[in-house]
Structure formats: structure tokens, C-alpha cells
Design brief:
Blueprint (H helix, E strand, L loop, with lengths): L18 H42 L4 H32 L3 H20 L3 H15 L2 H12 L5 H25 L4 H22 L14 H4 L4 H6 L3 H14 L7 H9 L3 H15 L2 H34 L3 H4 L1 H6 L4 H15 L4 H11 L1 H18 L6 H21 L12
Helix pairs in contact: 1-3, 1-5, 1-6, 1-7, 2-4, 2-17, 2-18, 3-4, 3-5, 3-7, 5-17, 6-12, 6-13, 10-16, 10-19, 13-16, 13-19
Length: 428
């Protein structure tokens, strides 16, 4: 008896999975792999430039710590205002033209900027570099998260596991970058950073296609964008969004303290080698972060995870304030690696944003704008406190941060976290 041909017109076995489904999963895995590689090289670039750029500025000021810190804080304030002005446009464009242009453009421009500042460092050049870098990288991480969310539902455990895998890959690459940076001068480290950004741009250009489907693209609401306070209107759509906005502002305040590098340079006489060693230790510890993150979310829920994140941050601030030995100071990145409150907050915000019909780009720009006021005020507040106490009690600013983290864990989060999440988890 003749066996009927079970192959379709394209040569696929009719009894197997549909070719569209197989193609979709193959494309999805390829996209995620390229995104992970680009994200890893971007992380390496940031590690290589993180200490080197401020060291270049400090060399211009001939080692004057308070003056360097003031310039850094003023630049941080200016870039925060820039984020507030341009953020909504970036979010709208991200939902209109897609994510891929921001990933490619941000990486390519970052490579160019780091190359230029490494060749001709100066105060004016550093300021221009930071503002241009903000324009390049401000939408980058939002576009990256949106691209992954296009492939994996952001509100699911699969998204959390996927991001955990991507973070693990990025951590391994960052460790390699930190190992290299410890033996480089600040200028050489910036040149290596430019090369890593160029590799990231190549991954996004040649390894990815646009993840935002045509049917999900949105028309740009130009009338809404002309209003710089459009985010306030967005928040008014939901009481839940309003509570989350206030929560975000309060829990972010102590994280605007950017004096740690200057503090350790003054107190311990640290340079590139010591900073790289400590950061490398932190990256090694963070390899276990995905497992710890899933365990905390399963044990404590989103609310409990956010509370414990603030408690660990309080302990890290106390270590920074009183630690006098490298082995004690090394506890700080260990404690920081246990902070997964941002993941918990992101999941809750994603659920509320879906209820309100917000696009991924609009949601990401809303997150950026929530911290604008704090970003304008508190970096300068912490810097002025540090400058005023640097010669007498330089750890004052870290004691203040510890107090703020304590208030967040025991008062702010328990009272402002969405009520639907209040009963999630236990032992918080």
C-alpha cells in the first residue's frame, strides 16, 4: 500500500511543528543571543570607563577631590534635566519606529565619544562628553528592556529568568573587562571602552532585527509631547501609578549619593587598581544573583523583596561608613548584589502599565522622569554634605544614606506598595 506523502509544499513534515512556529522560536533565540552579546559588551564598556573617566577629570584638577566631586554632581544634575526634557520623546519614538535604532545608535555614538575624550581630556571636554553620552545611552537600556519584553512577556517568570541569564553573561564579560582595566591607565581604559562599545554596535547591527511588530507600533502624540509635564497626566490615569511614582522617588533618594569613589580615594588613597579589584569581586559575587533573585521573589514576593533590598542597602552604607580594612569594605558589593528591589518594582509597574494601556517606550520614559526632581536636587545635596565634612567626618553622608534606606524598608514600602501585592510572600 502506498504511504501518503506527509510533507507540505515547502518540504516540511506535516506531522511536525508548524514551520512558522519553528522559525519564530529560532528567530527569538537568535535575537536574544545577539541582544545578550550586545548588552555584555556594553557592560564591559561601562566598567572600563566607570572609574577611568572620573580619574581623567581628577587629573585635570590635579587631584583636588572636592572640586572634582562638585563638577561630577553638577554634570549629573544637568544630565538629569536633559533626561527629563528628552525622555518622553525617546519613549514615543521607541514605540513608533522601534527599539533597534536606539541600540545601534547609542552604542556607536558611545564608542566615538569615549575615543575622543581619551585623546583630548579637559573639563569642557568632559562636560560635553557626559551630555552627549547621556543622549546616546539614555534610551539604550530602555530600548534593550523593551526589545526583550517584545520577545518575552515582562510580567512573567520567564522574563525574569531570561534577564537573569543575560545578566549572568554580562557579568562574566564585565569581570574580564575589570581584570584588564586594573593594569591599564585611565586613558588606555577609555580606549578599550570605546572598542567594547563598537563591538556592541556590531552585535545589534548584524545580529538583530526589529522586535517591535508593525501592528504594535503607535502614532506619536505630538500635542502630548509638547507638554513637559505630560508624565503627570499619565500618572493621573491610575491611582496605582501615582502611588508607584511616589514610591519610586522616595526609595531612589539615597542612591543619588555619588561620593563613594571620591571618599575611598581620600580615605584609603585608592586608584584604578584598587577600584578594579573591588568591582571585580562584586561581579564574581553577582554571578549568583539570578538564583538569589528568583529565590527572593518566590520566598518574599515583590513587596518583601523590595523591603529586603533596602535593608541590604542600609548594611552596605554602614560598611562604607565604618569599614577601614579592604576585606571589610569588600562586604559592600556583596550586600549590593542582594538588592533585587528594582526587579520587583519593575514587575509591579509593568502590570499597572498594562492595565493603563501604556506602551513599553512610554512606560520606560515615565520611569526615567519619575526620578527627575530627586536627580536634580540630591546629587548636589550629598556632594555638599561630603565637601563640608570631608576633613572632619567624611562618613557622614553614608550614615545619612543608611538612615534613608532604613526608613524606606520600615515605613515607605510597607505603606506605599500596591495593596494587591501586600499579601504576596511572607517573612518580610
Amino acid at each position: 500500500m502506498e504511504v501518503p506523502d506527509r510533507r507540505d509544499a515547502d518540504g516540511n513534515d506535516a506531522g511536525s511543528a508548524k514551520p512558522e512556529q519553528a522559525k519564530y522560536w529560532t528567530t527569538k533565540e537568535r535575537q536574544l543571543t545577539a541582544l545578550a552579546a550586545g548588552r555584555a559588551f556594553t557592560g564591559a564598556s561601562i566598567m572600563l570607563s566607570m572609574f577611568a573617566s572620573s580619574e581623567l577629570l581628577r587629573s585635570v584638577f590635579q587631584g583636588n577631590q572636592p572640586q572634582t566631586q562638585r563638577v561630577l554632581s553638577l554634570v549629573n544634575t544637568g544630565t538629569t534635566l536633559l533626561t527629563f526634557c528628552v525622555g518622553p520623546l525617546n519613549g514615543a519614538l521607541m514605540d513608533s519606529i522601534g527599539r533597534r535604532p536606539f541600540l545601534m545608535f547609542g552604542s556607536a555614538l558611545a564608542a566615538t565619544l569615549r575615543l575622543v575624550i581619551s585623546i583630548r581630556p579637559s573639563v569642557k571636554g568632559y562636560i560635553a562628553y557626559r551630555f552627549a553620552l547621556t543622549l546616546a545611552m539614555m534610551p539604550f537600556f530602555s530600548a534593550f528592556r523593551a526589545a526583550v519584553a517584545d520577545l518575552v512577556d515582562r510580567t512573567t517568570d520567564e522574563y525574569t529568568r531570561t534577564m537573569g541569564t543575560i545578566d549572568t553573561i554580562a557579568t562574566i564579560v564585565r569581570m574580564a573587562a575589570l581584570t584588564i582595566s586594573g593594569s591599564l591607565t585611565p586613558r588606555q581604559s577609555m580606549l578599550a571602552s570605546a572598542g567594547a562599545s563598537a563591538l556592541a554596535a556590531g552585535c545589534f547591527a548584524f545580529g538583530t532585527t526589529e522586535t517591535l511588530k508593525d501592528e504594535n507600533k503607535r502614532e506619536i502624540n505630538w500635542s502630548k509631547l509638547r507638554n513637559p509635564f505630560s508624565s503627570v497626566q499619565t500618572l493621573s490615569q491610575s491611582r496605582g501609578l501615582s502611588r508607584l511614582a511616589l514610591l519610586s522617588v522616595l526609595i531612589d533618594v539615597p542612591d543619588f549619593n555619588s561620593t563613594l569613589q571620591m571618599y575611598r580615594s581620600q580615605r584609603f588613597g585608592w586608584g584604578m587598581r584598587e577600584f578594579s579589584r573591588l568591582a571585580l569581586g562584586g561581579q564574581i559575587v553577582s554571578l549568583s544573583s539570578p538564583v538569589i533573585m528568583m529565590g527572593m521573589l518566590g520566598q518574599f514576593g515583590t513587596r518583601g523583596t523590595a523591603i529586603w533590598s533596602q535593608r541590604f542597602a542600609m548594611l552596605a552604607s554602614l560598611v562604607n561608613a565604618f569599614g577601614s580594612d579592604f576585606r571589610v569594605v569588600a562586604l559592600s558589593p556583596v550586600l549590593q548584589s542582594l538588592r533585587h528591589g528594582a526587579t520587583a518594582f519593575d514587575r509591579v509597574l509593568a502590570l499597572e502599565a498594562q492595565r493603563c494601556g501604556l506602551g513599553e517606550g512610554e512606560k520606560e520614559s515615565l520611569i526615567a522622569n519619575l526620578s527627575t526632581l530627586s536627580g536634580v536636587v540630591f546629587p548636589n545635596v550629598f556632594s555638599e554634605i561630603y565637601a563640608a565634612t570631608a576633613k572632619t567626618r567624611p562618613n557622614t553622608v553614608f550614615l545619612l544614606c543608611a538612615l534613608l534606606h532604613l526608613l524606606n524598608s520600615e515605613l515607605v514600602i510597607p505603606n506605599l506598595w500596591p495593596s494587591t501585592e501586600a499579601s504576596e510572600g511572607h517573612n518580610s
